[in-house]
Amino acid sequence: MIDIQKTARVIEALIFASPAPVPRRALLPYLENEDQITEVLASIAARYDEQSGIELSDIEGHYAFRTRADVAAFLTLERPIQRPLSRAALEVLAIIAYHQPITRSEIEEIRGISLSRGTVDILLELGWIKPRGRRRTPGRPLTWGTSTAFLDHFGLQGVDELPGIDELKSAGLLRKGQILGGIGESSHQDDDGPEDEVSDGLLDDDFLDGFVEEDA
């Protein structure tokens, strides 16, 4: 029989030292059975009550220590990413976040313009999107979705915490008369052409800018 408190200390140290959120499966070698995970995590979380400035976060089954929301505002930092994102990349990221799992052709249909290879490459390099399997349709196209790194970067526990349409409209981040995922009117271009910066006016600049802000 393992010592739950000692095991909790080991797992606490593991999560603290990890540069990225720790997946649930990585905790199993320290336990006798998976049922003990809940008890161990509860023991760790109890050490960081509301009096603490940090908390144990569950990011879709990945665990990390993060600053509490009420103190995060005092620690907010704006750091440039290594490779600035184009408006096209930001728009594609927003579409994937709200429509996942989604295929390349569906992204192009929503934007009303073809998707260059470089856009997906950039988002993959950042680790913000990942393949989500193949659609059971002719050609079995690959689908895309956001990753745990995307959720962690923007301080989300899951994609259900993304702002809804009504929230975006009330905040003035969605243009009047537009629907997130509406079909654009721009004509398609060749996929091998240069990265396009053309937008169908779907999203407001302030909303897209929110996808490159990083909170502590």
Structure notes:
It contains nine helices and six strands, in the order H-E-H-E-E-H-H-E-H-H-E-E-H-H-H. It is α+β, with helices and mostly antiparallel strands and 216 residues long. It has two domains: 72 residues, Arc Repressor Mutant, subunit A (Orthogonal Bundle), CATH 1.10.10; 126 residues, Orthogonal Bundle (Arc Repressor Mutant, subunit A). It has a three-stranded antiparallel β-sheet with strand order 1-3-2. The radius of gyration is 20 Å and the shape is globular. The C terminus is likely disordered.
The CATH superfamily name of the largest domain is Winged helix-like DNA-binding domain superfamily/Winged helix DNA-binding domain
CATH class of the largest domain: Mainly Alpha
* Strand order in the sheet with the most strands: 1-3-2
Number of helices: 9
Structural class based on helices, strands and sheet pairing: alpha+beta
CATH architecture of the largest domain: Orthogonal Bundle
Radius of gyration: 20 Å
Number of domains: 2
**The CATH topology of the largest domain is what?**
Arc Repressor Mutant, subunit A
Q: Helix fraction?
A: 25-40%
- Give the averaged pLDDT, no decimals: 77
Shape: globular
How much β-strand is present in the residues? Answer: 5-15%
Low-confidence regions: 176-207, 212-216
Largest sheet: 3 strands, antiparallel
In N-to-C order, the SSE pattern is HEHEEHHEHHEEHHH
Distance between the termini: 39 Å
What would you call the quaternary organization?
single chain
Strand elements, count: 6
